Sequence to fold (96 residues):
Amino acid sequence: MTDCVVYVGNLDDPTFKWEGGDWNGNVPARLSPEFPPMTQHYNAEYRAWVKAGGVKCEQTDLGAWVACVTKAQIEESLRVNVGCFRGTWFCQFSCV
Fold:
């Protein structure tokens, strides 16, 4: 199965470049664990959410795409794709 890893990253990471990176691990440093849990090939639910929401994505590495989203978009993504996982880090975004 092809992996599609999603995490909140630090776009201010000094080693990350939106443009002109060296394509050798040019991704932002992680600020969160991976999410949402993969339930289908290539994380189909998350990719559908990105496409439907018109989320800005750029390829920054040979195997990596980076999306620039707001906190509200992250919260919406978690509600749509993950639901509420009480007792986990997801709750800081999605549990009411």
Remarks:
- The chain is about 25% helix and 15% strand.
- Residues 9-69 form one domain.
- The chain has a mean pLDDT of 75.
- The CA atoms of residues 84 and 95 lie 6 Å apart.
